[in-house]
Amino acid sequence: MKIAMQGVRGAFHEIAIRKYFKNEDYDTVPCASFNELFDALQFQKADYGMVAIENSIVGSILPNFTLLRESGLRILGEVYLRIEQHLLALPGQTLSDIKKVYSHPMALQQCREFLTPMRRNGVQMVDSEDTALSARWISEGNMKEVGAIASRLAAKLYDLKIVAESIETNKMNFTRFLIVSHEENYQNHLKGQDINKASLCFVLPHQQGRLSEVLPVLSFYKINLTKIQSLPIVGQEWEYLFYVDVDFKDFPKYRQSLDAIRPLLSELTIFGEYEKGEKVHEN
User: Fold this and answer.
1) Distance between CA atoms of 156 and 10, rounded to whole angstroms?
2) Is 235 helix (H, G, I), strand (E, B) or coil?
3) Which residues of 256-281 are buried (b: 16+ CB within 10 A; e: fewer)?
4) Per-residue confidence in pLDDT tens, the chain, 283 aa
């Protein structure tokens, strides 16, 4: 089994894969971008994909909604991973030795409180493509006086020292990852699961009050709306796609709610019906 992920070995995507597929045999397929990840599934280079979709601090990763919709792939499940950021460097280096720090811009932002005194002391912060890739650069280049913000797994894989541990500002920082695959894997994977959540996308007619007509119907059927994200429809000014997550206790009632709202919609896509994910930690 091959699982595509954005980033190199040691990325948070790999940690999410380890948590979700903990009893499975698999190989990871590192991808430089989310576009490449979806291509890997489309061109049969991978069987599954692990895709970050939102973060509890910075919000939704909007381009991934479009990639998911255009790919036709299905959502099999989800993982909520607690993101712990660590400052890594070569063995023997100390915090006072660090003159430059590499990491993904989001990671640098998440660690702003810790990094601010370092900036004031002249330490340079440099944006990079990926947290784990920053760690690999330091290891492969034997780069002294340089740090990377990345995961504990990256430190282990690239033989780096954790100079400062858990430096993220918000200690309740979670990223939600989706597990995506083709229809056949979707049908097989969900057998025996307790389906209590769904991810949908719908389009409303461009008429006043249509969204306010849909929401009470979901409420009537005891459907809990956990997320709603609107994105513009390209080429149709001021019209929107609505990406919606719902959870429920009664699957037949949930299906009845979809039948009830369909007449109010121009289009409805079910990305996946699956078991609600758990919050997990790196260790």
Assistant:
1) 8
2) coil
3) ebbeebeebbeeeeebbbbebbeebe
4) 999 999 999 999 999 999 999 989 999 999 999 999 999 999 999 999 999 999 988 889 999 999 999 999 999 999 999 999 999 999 999 999 999 999 999 899 999 999 999 999 999 999 998 999 999 999 999 999 999 999 999 999 999 999 999 999 999 999 999 999 999 999 988 777 889 999 999 999 877 788 999 999 999 999 999 999 999 998 888 889 999 999 999 999 999 999 999 999 999 999 999 999 999 998 7
Domains of the chain listed by start with CATH number? 2-82+173-191 (3.40.190.10), 86-164 (3.40.190.10), 197-274 (3.30.70.260)
Q: List residues bridging with 154 in a β-sheet.
A: none
- Which pTM does this prediction carry? 0.93
Active site residues: 175, 177
Structure tokens at 234: 């390209």
